[in-house]
Every structure is written in structure tokens, then in C-alpha cells.
């Protein structure tokens, strides 16, 4: 017969076992640090598979704010239909996932996205190429349909077309590329306002942060990007890997960002010209700017040029990097390490430090003619993993009774809170077509 003392002791042992198991889970390096292949780019939960049409009339209709997965062949051209109204601007974005790992790519290998009207006129288009980082890594492009009195095309409501094109060099690996597709809308501004970009914003980089670096691990893509704030962040990255991070920016705030590779423990001869790549994307996945750094075994840093503070009127700027700073929300950093680093210096992982400064206080934004858009979801809100979700799965798997959960809850939530501060957005990393492709 079990006594009350025995039941309390058993309960305590179950709490201790749960806490020990939870502590082991939170202390153990995730899949990102494990040896083996780099995990694939993570699409959000509920992503819909869709095949683009070879002609505009064959293109499937896409819904706003819905994630779609597709595939494009070398030299391919795909059509998708968008039903747009006459009161909202629209952004169509494509993330191309060159692959497989080890594929040969050329500087000009690229993806282009356009929004076209019923007459075949481009509302906007953008092409993104592999560039000097000639190895498989995600690249994203975005096109924009603007409602403006000064424009004569793309102003009427009706059916528009998102057109995705791929250009491939004859020497490149002729493999299919997976695509991450979406489009979203933004209400026009209510009333009238400035129609020119602000000028005179601070262009001098501030002193870098000096706080103790906090541990984090980047996500596999935009949908599970690890959330960062101002300060220094420490991670590790493997050759051929791309890690994703998100930084929330409000209206009026200005981002200064740099990524640095650590030195080798022992000297080794070698040099990689474009070793570390740092790319910044805005909340609608439009490219903002980028930087790269070489590597010779000593510490190296890639820093973004000073950017304009986030402002609605930036969209009127002629410079692309200023025009892209047009909406508030989650801005994304994609950090890639060349496979040549592994071939020259070893497979790593390599120390990565991110240094972020968010200057300026939040300001009021534009008055929209409709509900303000939410471009700041990101992370687990878009289907990525979170420390809370993983922890609660563990608690459920342990089969702990209701009373024990109530007792252990404070300890669990304390551990989770500390873990989320120390390692926001932990999840597997990597990129490339999903296994289905």
C-alpha cells in the first residue's frame, strides 16, 4: 500500500525526472550542431503545393497571405493569377532554392518575378542572381503593384499575373529549383501625404555594441528565422549553410548590422574571396542590400552600409536600398558561408557573431485607408518551431499528471523563459529544395 509520503516522493521524483529531461533537451545542441547533411529550407506548416502555368490562362489563382510551394526548371517561365482590387497595393515575392547541395552555379543564374496586368505590361519586376557566391543558397525577389495617381497602368481592379522566370548558364547543374511563393497587400494611404523620400538621415555608423554576446541559432528560412534585438549574438555556421534571422523595425528606426567569422584555433594557409555573405530583406521579402567578406583563417567581418530609417515615403526614392525600407515589421538577415571555406579550412562549424544596432525611437506610421498590414509575424507565427512548443510536447510525452504539471509549471516556464531569451528562435538550419523535390 502506497502511503501519502510515498505518493509525494513519487511525485517529486516525476517532477525531478521531467525537469532533468527538460533540462537535457534545452542544454543539448539542436540538429543544427549535429554532424551530417545540412537540413533543408523549412516551408511553413500548411504550405500549398502549386504548379505554375506555361501560359497566363493556365496559371492557378493564388490567395493573398498564403504560402505556396512550386518548382521551376532551367529556363522556365511560370504564370500565377492574382485577383487585385483597386484600393490596395500588392507585393509578390519568390524565394528560389537552388540545389542540390554541391550543384555548380554561375554568376548570372537568376530568378525574376514580375507583376503584369491584363495587357501584358509590367507593373514592376525584379531579378536576383546568384552573384559572386556561386554555390546553392536561397535568393529572393519581390515585385510591386502600386496604386498612384501619377501612374497610368496597373491601376484598375481585376486579374493580374505573377510571372516567375529562371535563367541558367549552360555550364550550371540543370536541376529543378524549388520556389517559396506568396503575395500580400497593403492598403493605400488615407488622404494625401509627402510624395518624395526623406533626406538628411544619419549616415554615420554608430559605435558597435559591446555587450556580452547572447547565444542564438538561426533558422532554415524566412518562416523560422530566429528573432534578434539590438546587441551582439553568437552562433555557429557550417560551410554551405545559410542561417536566417529577423529583426523587428518600427517606423523611424534605423538598422546597422554586421556579421563576423571567428579566427581558427591554429594557423592554416588559404584564402576564400567571397566566404561570408550577409543579405538583408524587408518584410515583404524584397532585397534591401548585402555585404560579403573574404576569409583567410583570421577573423573577418561583413558590414551593411548605413540604411535609411524605415519610412512610408522611402518607396518614392530612386535608390533601391532606400526604396526597400518602406514598411515596418520583420526585416530578415540571411547569412551564408561558402562551401569553399570547408574545402580550404575544414568543415567547421565556424564561430559567427552578429552585431546589431537599432537607432531611433519608434514613430507613428501612415494613416491607412483600411486596417494596417501586419508585416511582423515571422518566426513561430509563420509555422516555425518555438521553445514553448517543443517544451510542451515534452511535457505531454512524459505523461505527467495534472497536479504534477501544476507544481512543475513554474519551473518549466522559468526554464523556457530563460531559454527563449538565451536562444530565441532555435530551430534546424540549412537550405535547399525540400525532400519532396
Describe it:
This protein is an alpha+beta fold. It is 16% helix and 32% strand. It has helices at 4-27, 320-323, 339-345, 387-398, 402-422; strands spanning 48-49, 61-62, 68-72, 77-84, 88-97, 110-116, 122-129, 139-145, 158-167, 177-187, 214-215, 226-227, 231-237, 242-249, 254-261, 272-281, 287-295, 300-303, 329-337, 350-359. Residues 1-34 and 377-437 have low confidence and may be disordered.
Principal-axes shape call: globular
State the distance separating the first and last CA atoms.
59 Å
Strand neighbour order, sheet with most strands: 1-3-10-5-8
- Oligomeric grouping of the chains: single chain
Mean pLDDT: 83
DSSP strand count: 20
Strand content: 25-35%
Summarize the structure.
Helices cover 16% and strands 32% of the residues. By secondary structure, the protein is of the alpha+beta class. Helix 1 runs parallel beside helix 5.
